[in-house]
Amino acid sequence: xxxxxxxxxxxxxxxxxxxxxxxxxxxxxxxxxxxxxxxxxxxxxxxxxxxxxxxxxxxxxxxxxxxxxxxxxxxxxxxxxxxxxxxxxxxxxxxxxxxxxxxxxxxxxxxxxxxxxxxxxxxxxxxxxxxxxxxxxxxxxxxxxxxxxxxxxxxxxxxxxxxxxxxxxxxxxxxxxxxxxxxxxxxxxxxxxxxxxxxxxxxxxxxxxxxxxxxxxxxxxxxxxxxxxxxxxxxxxxxxxxxxxxxxxxxxxxxxxxxxxxxxxxxxxxxxxxxxxxxxxxxxxxxxxxxxxxxxxxxxxxxxxxxxxxxxxxxxxxxxxx
Length: 322
Ligand code: ATP
Fold this sequence. Notes:
It is a single chain. It is built from eleven helices and eleven strands. The chain folds into two domains: 3-139 and 260-305, 3-Layer(aba) Sandwich (Rossmann fold), CATH 3.40.50.450; 140-256, Rossmann fold, CATH 3.40.50.460. Helix 2 crosses helix 3 (79-91). Strands 3-2-1-4-5-10-11 form a seven-stranded mixed beta sheet, with helices on both faces. By secondary structure, the chain is α/β, with parallel strands linked by helices. Strand 10 (286-291) and strand 11 form a beta hairpin. The chain starts with a strand and ends with a helix. The structure holds adenosine-5'-triphosphate (ATP). Adenosine-5'-triphosphate binds next to helix 4.
């Protein structure tokens, strides 16, 4: 392999830059040239490729977002779009590709390799932590830290005014951010898409808290919760129980931004290196990850097909400590 490409795709996640850096530096150590593809599959189709040398990835390990930019690309879902992308990769003599992204990115990569033969290795990067076969995904830890920092501040004002706060966090289909951050901030309840939300039992819980002289409460709501999101759940609760002044905060895109945490930087560095070495060994259509402190590879087929399950023990923990 003489030349590889790297791109970041799907929702941006803190740590993607650290991963790009590791890919570039590892490849150069093996005398392999690297091109960055700008704006993911869109750039692959339009031929927006830039050469990356040692210095072009200097001073990015600490930066959120992605220097290669990210994009969603409908055209890549068509065989015509993928044929254009293949022609560009061939034009630039690319022998293998490292894709940093989520399940959509890997689905596209798998279809592409079947059609055009160019091997892809994936590094999981998405704040949602919803990929099967991973213990750790680049960006998840940083997003959790952002949520925790914000909720700690909200707690101060909640406490000062006897308020009940509903804090909405990201997670359209998965409650990983909500559950883990809920435990970390000591939330009174965590509402996630994986479990049904009962407003009556939530109110019961708040009443018990009040009986224990609690003067404020924090409820973490995943955006995809079946109760309808933080505003809707707050409205339903307020209709039946208005002991507290009720407030809603939607954290939104601040969860994506910011400097990556130490864990994400290290993980991204490990995975970027592992991905390049895997390509050099002839692997393809697999995702690198760290499980039990060891680098492992999971086939795209497995990673895409199955859903990461919510940890029931953590769910019980959140409930029992609230
Ligand atoms: P995140 O979890 O952060 O959303 P993701 O990788 O799952 O990341 P998607 O938007 O689902 O993000 O997918 C990224 C891109 O992958 C899409 O914009 C599209 O170009 C490509 N892609 C997704 N699914 C397919 C598919 N079935 N066929 C071809 N390409 C696909």
